Amino acid sequence: MRAFGRRVLVLAAVFGLLLLGPMGDANRADAQDRKRLVIGMTQFPATLNPYIGSMLAKSYVLAAMVRPTAIVGKDWLDRCMLCTELPTFENGRAETWTVRDPKTDVPAGNTGVRTTYTLKDDLFWGDGTPVTTADVVFAWEVGRHPESGVASQKSFEEIIDIEVVDAKTFIVVEEKVAYRYSLSGAFTPLPAHLERDRFQDPREYRLQSLYETDPTNPGLWNGPYRLKEIEKGSHVVLTRNETWKGKAPAFDEIVVRTIEKTTALEANLLSGAIDYIAGEMGLTLDQALAFEKRHGGKFDIEYVQGLVYEHIDLNLDNPILSDVRVRRALLHALDRAAISEKLFGGKQGVADTNVHPLDRIHTDDVPKYPFDPDAANKLLDEAGWTERKRGIRHNAAGEPLALEIMTTAGNRARELVQQVLQSYWKRVGIDVRIRNEPARVFFGETVRKRKFTGLAMFAWLSSPERVPKTVLHSDYIPTEANNWSGQNATGYSNPAVDDLLDAIEVELDPDERKSMFGDLQRYYASDLPVLPLYFRAQPFIVPSWLKGIEPTGHQYTTTLWIEEWRVE
Questions:
Q1: In this predicted structure, which of 2-11, 112-121, 247-256 has the lowest mean pLDDT?
Q2: Rounded to 10 degrees, what is the CA torsion of 541, 546, 547, 548?
């Protein structure tokens, strides 16, 4: 990705409204006196447990305090973080094996992979305990337990064993050779010496974990910072982790403040109450562009293209939304291009599927739903919503075509978009009511437990060429029985898509895999388990004295390299 000081043109944009306020002094103290960095962002993490829930705010904060074994790097290539070397067939750390039936010991007809990882020697939890393979194995045990409630339990189940070689080396054993086999062990260790006792009742682990009951315990953290203070819904304070042996971070403390209203977030930056707004969760594009015109001389501003997909999840258990004709009508009724042009200067690229044009697997050969009210009306008539009363469609049973849309409260841009969508849908006879919640409730409860009755608007972040298995495969539908594990909040279930997702994972030929991804995108655009809206971009507005922040453009946040941030 490009360093700050150069402008990046964007294909898509973040929803936004303009707020202008008094300008604070961005350089209110000499650089050498800065020992504390105050960051503002729009959401507060619902939890700090690395495996419970899926929320960007959590990822952003955690990345400064706990590190995964391996990641997709800033350069969009697979990289080690805690390990010494990624396993490959070329370096001998990956090898195939013949899967055998455990009962008969007869070859099962498929090939698996064994990948060897070695942890770095200088890794310690904040209480001085070394990070070892025991922490890796424990994380896997938590992840794979059917009642633990982790976001991607099925992914952990696909690892059939982790063989411990010694305190630093372990072997991940899988019954298939996935094309990203070198990241098969790329998950975050958990401190077994502290958390194992909390896992006695897996179903209650979410509430009993020290990440919930004692989050300032130093032993939970192995990164350059550890948690010093937490005020739920308000802020967290991070302090230097004295057991961190990597590059020393520049700041003694990091404060991350939650300011849910984007207008207030900008005002706090202008007044100097915060130093920096997290580019991943900060100002909208309109705000950033207006801000640059007025105050750009005191900030380095970059608009980063990224794999950020703004969309509307549909609860397919709702009888209205279970009809694909209604789903297609909902999209045909929207003039997304006009919304982009009139509200956002035409800088938000309309999405047809969940795959960004920047991703090599993207295809444009998919069903599309341009603005066409006549097509929307025809589809709704075909679906049985033929009678209009006071402008709202009803079916033969007299039931109104009424839905509810939800998103994160306080995001004025999203709230404005909701109102525009509501107006478009009313024109074709659909009554859509707006009800919003704070982000920590919306993501921590409503989306996670599929409590939204109709439509839920939010964004997904992904890494390049990622298989969207946790959001599309029927095995990943959150239920009370699996303790709400999985991210398929729509309840989408298509056996052909399940098979395709499974097949893509093990296709090693990149060209064939790209073709299969094209098929997946066509299923997605045809079935419409969600309504695609836009691909967003992230505006990074950085004070001129703060250097070293390098946006990734994908799901891994800049805070994974927070020790590189510096003052000039």
A1: 2-11
A2: -80
Q: Which residue from 467, 515, 511 is spatially nearest to 178, judged by alpha carbons?
A: 467
**Which residue in this structure is represented by tokens 């207008």?**
263
Whether the per-residue pLDDT at 551 is higher than 60: the answer is yes
Q: How far apart are CA 150 and CA 86, in angstroms?
A: 25
CB-based contacts of 204, cutoff 8 Å, min separation 6: none
Distance CA 218, CA 212 (A): 13
- What pLDDT, in 10s, does the model give residues 152-201? 777 888 899 999 999 999 999 999 999 999 999 998 999 999 999 999 99
Question: Do residues 249 and 240 lie in contact, with contact meaning Cβ atoms separated by under 8 Å?
Answer: yes
Residue carrying structure tokens 């296709």: 507
Q: How many CA atoms lie within 13 A of 537 on its CB side?
A: 28
Minimal CA–CA distance to 259: which of 245, 271, 243? 271
- Name the amino acid, one letter, at 303: Y
- The full length of the chain comes to 568
User: How many other C-beta atoms lie within 10 A of the C-beta of residue 110?
Assistant: 11
pLDDT of residue 345: 66
pLDDT digits over 465-502, tens only? 999 999 999 999 999 998 888 899 999 999 999 999 99
**Residue 134, number of CB atoms within 10 A of its CB:** 19
pLDDT, average across residues 383-405: 97
Q: Which helix (DSSP H) or strand (DSSP E) does residue 276 occupy?
A: strand 276-277
What does the DSSP assignment read for 472-488? Answer: HSGGG---TTTTT-SS-
Give the residue-averaged pLDDT of 22-41: 64
What lies within 8 Å, CB to CB, of 189 at 6+ separation is 69, 82, 131, 135, 136, 138, 139, 222
Q: pTM of the predicted model, to two decimals? A: 0.78
What secondary structure does DSSP assign to 503-536, as a single string? HHHT---HHHHHHHHHHHHHHHHHH-SEEEEEEE
User: Would residue 563 be called left, alpha or beta, if left means φ above 0 and alpha means ψ between -120 and 50 degrees?
Assistant: alpha
Does residue 25 register a pLDDT over 50? no
Q: Counting beta carbons within 10 angstroms of the beta carbon of residue 371, is it exposed (0 to 12), middle (13 to 18) or buried (19 or more)? A: middle
Residue 331 backbone class (left: φ over 0; alpha: ψ -120 to 50; beta: rest): alpha
Going from the C-alpha of 536 to that of each of 23, 142, 377, 455, the distances in angstroms are 27, 33, 29, 19
> pLDDT tens across 282-317, in order?
888 778 888 888 888 889 988 887 888 999 999 999
- Give the integer Cα–Cα distance in Å for 466 and 443: 22
Note whether 539 and 262 are within 8 A (CB). Answer: no
**Position 87 confidence tier, pLDDT thresholds 50, 70, 90:** very high
Closest CA to 75 of 559, 562, 567, 551: 551
228 close to 239: Cβ distance less than 8 angstroms: yes
